[in-house]
Design brief:
Blueprint: H1 2-24, H2 29-35, E1 41-42, H3 46-58, E2 62-63, E3 74-78, H4 84-91, E4 106-112, E5 115-122, E6 127-129, E7 135-137, E8 141-144, E9 150-153
Parallel strand pairs: 1-5, 6-9
Antiparallel strand pairs: 2-8, 3-4, 3-7, 4-5, 8-9
Organism: Mycolicibacterium senegalense
Protein name: Lipoprotein
Length: 157
């Protein structure tokens, strides 16, 4: 019975050592990636998606806030292949787990008082930004931008 217990302790120590070694090696990126904090991205926000699509098809201008049901004061726009590092630098918090945003949907990250509160994926990748900026205030407008695109823009004073 004593030898069996020693084997269990030894096996447990070896297993823990291997797990710690795996976490410390760069080859175990998948493990680290799975353990990274991130936000859930909502690709099914009907109010947001339907509202933006109506502006796109009707070639009209509107406020992004008209299509959201939550309180926010800043939004960030990202596209496919944007690096995780760039997103985290802009947002100030982890948003995605992988090394880059790998969806064809545009990614909108909404903040309230400097804290990210919602990440939404907008299918179709038709959102663009004025001056290639990533961050906009709550009064951001969405306007037609030719050839099937909408542009996020800061309203004129």
């Amino acid at each position: 019975m004593g030898a069996h217990r020693v084997n269990i302790v030894r096996t447990t120590r070896i297993t823990l050592s291997v797990a710690l070694l795996c976490l410390s090696l760069t080859g175990c990126d998948l493990v680290r990636q799975a353990l990274r904090p991130s936000m859930d991205i909502d690709y099914n926000d009907q109010r947001l998606n339907d509202g933006l699509e109506s502006l796109l098809h009707e070639k009209k201008t509107g406020r992004l806030s008209d299509f959201t049901s939550w309180d926010w004061d800043e939004v960030h726009l990202f596209h496919e292949y944007t690096s995780r590092e760039s997103i985290e630098k802009t947002v100030g918090s982890p948003v995605i787990k992988s090394s880059s945003y790998d969806s064809q949907a545009s990614l909108l990250v909404f903040e309230k008082n400097g804290k990210p509160i919602k990440a939404a994926g907008v299918e179709g990748d038709y959102l663009r930004s004025q001056g290639h900026r990533a961050t906009f205030p709550a009064d951001v407008i969405v306007e037609p931008w030719g050839d099937g695109y909408l542009m996020l823009a800061v309203p004129a004073d």
